[in-house]
């Protein structure tokens, strides 16, 4: 499928869904160990750029972002400085709304867009305060919906005919954000759309008549993967799964477990489907070979998670889907083009 940017004349063969998101964080207490303001940009799950009040500059985080045109980084640095002032005001406003006079308080925002592999687009602009959902943009009506009483004043102001923040965000999310996403994907296609086959290990822990089966899938890219346990030719519907977690090398891992009661003739296998595979994998569990692998993979997985959490820093990051809503606080909206860090 070809998608053309009329403004840029840019042709993009879209083979995967891609997203562009910016995360903003404002902190009330300087000296808390966190920058007073930070802004981090992601394409898919790759951090591509960041700014904070301590560095005072937007900087690329992947090599292919260095391909951006002259003036790009200076322009976005100036946008970030404006957003920094807005978030300082937002934190103070939120504290007044919640009758707070001191302490550490955090305003967070996520704004961005997604271009799906079927050509459809999705946008979102969501706000949070102290980890709680506060305000979110409804992209059906392009109005802001408060999720707590303290957000109603902000929603009324932003939705008023004089301000109409949602309408301005509509233009950004549906046009500008998508065009910048296409640019970034074009520059980073080799990295973003690389195919790395998953490695799979299966194991089992016997507990009397039952066995806890584990399927560890790791080292794959891109992120999307389908993993499940099969009994003979049927899916095992009762199971536990971790989130898909990033590895330091840019690949991903996931573990799916199921507690079963094997009977004679039963054959259990882990089903794995991924874009790097021509056909799904079926990895059969063989009891006599499984126990050692469980402990090896468990220890390695724990070490990887610790490493990833250490790298993660202060910015909040959660898996987002189009139905997700977060929170917001200032009577003065941040520049709707703040996501136009682009």
Describe the fold and architecture.
It is a single chain. This protein has 342 residues and is α+β, with helices and mostly antiparallel strands. 26% of the residues lie in helices and 34% in strands. It has four helices and 19 strands. The strands form four sheets. It has an eight-stranded antiparallel sheet with strand order 6-5-4-3-7-8-9-10. Strands 11, 12, 15, 16 and 17 form a five-stranded antiparallel sheet that branches. Strands 14-13-18-19 form a four-stranded antiparallel sheet, with no helix packed on it. Strand 1 (2-5) and strand 2 (10-13) form a beta hairpin. The radius of gyration is 23 Å and the shape is globular. 36% of the residues are buried. Residues 1-14, 290-295 and 304-342 have low confidence and may be disordered.
Binned strand content: 25-35%
Query: Measured on Cα atoms, how large is the radius of gyration?
Result: 23 Å
- Lateral arrangement of strands in the main beta sheet: 6-5-4-3-7-8-9-10
Continuous helix count: 4
The overall strand count is: 19
Ends apart, CA distance between termini: 25 Å
Mean pLDDT, to the nearest integer, reads 83
Largest sheet: 8 strands, antiparallel
Helix-strand topology string? EEEEEEHEEEEHHEEEEEEEEEH
Shape: globular
Query: pLDDT under 50 segments (min length 5)?
Result: 1-14, 290-295, 304-342
Q: Which class best fits the helix and strand makeup?
A: alpha+beta
Helix proportion: 25-40%
């Amino acid at each position: 499928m070809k998608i053309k940017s009329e403004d840029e004349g840019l042709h993009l063969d879209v083979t995967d869904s891609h997203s562009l998101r910016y995360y903003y964080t404002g902190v009330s207490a300087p000296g808390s160990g966190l920058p007073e303001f930070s802004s981090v940009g992601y394409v898919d799950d790759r951090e591509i750029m960041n700014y904070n009040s301590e560095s005072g500059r937007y900087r690329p985080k992947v090599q292919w972002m260095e391909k951006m045109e002259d003036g790009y980084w200076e322009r976005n640095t100036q946008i970030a400085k404006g957003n920094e002032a807005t978030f300082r005001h937002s934190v103070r406003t939120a504290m007044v709304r919640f009758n707070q006079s001191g302490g550490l308080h955090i305003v967070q925002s996520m704004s961005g867009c997604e271009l799906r592999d079927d050509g459809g687009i999705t946008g979102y602009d969501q706000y949070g305060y102290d980890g709680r959902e506060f305000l979110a943009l409804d992209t059906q009506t392009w109005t802001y919906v408060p999720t707590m009483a303290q957000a109603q004043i902000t929603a009324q102001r932003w939705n008023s005919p004089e301000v109409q923040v949602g309408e301005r965000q509509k233009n950004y999310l549906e046009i500008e954000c998508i065009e910048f996403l296409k640019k970034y994907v074009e520059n980073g296609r080799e990295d973003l759309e690389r195919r790395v086959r998953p490695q799979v290990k299966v194991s089992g822990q016997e507990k009397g008549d039952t066995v806890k089966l584990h399927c560890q899938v790791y080292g794959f890219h891109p992120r999307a993967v389908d993993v499940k346990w099969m009994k003979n030719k049927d899916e095992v519907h009762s199971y536990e799964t971790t989130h898909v977690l990033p590895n330091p090398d840019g690949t991903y891992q996931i573990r799916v477990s199921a507690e079963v009661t094997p009977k004679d003739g039963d054959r259990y296998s882990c089903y794995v489907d991924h874009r790097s595979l021509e056909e799904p994998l079926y990895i059969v569990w063989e009891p006599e070979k499984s126990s050692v692998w469980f402990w090896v993979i468990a220890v390695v997985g724990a070490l990887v998670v610790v490493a990833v959490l250490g790298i993660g820093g202060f910015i909040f990051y959660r898996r987002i889907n189009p139905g997700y809503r977060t929170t917001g606080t200032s009577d003065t909206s941040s520049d709707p083009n703040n996501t136009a860090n682009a």
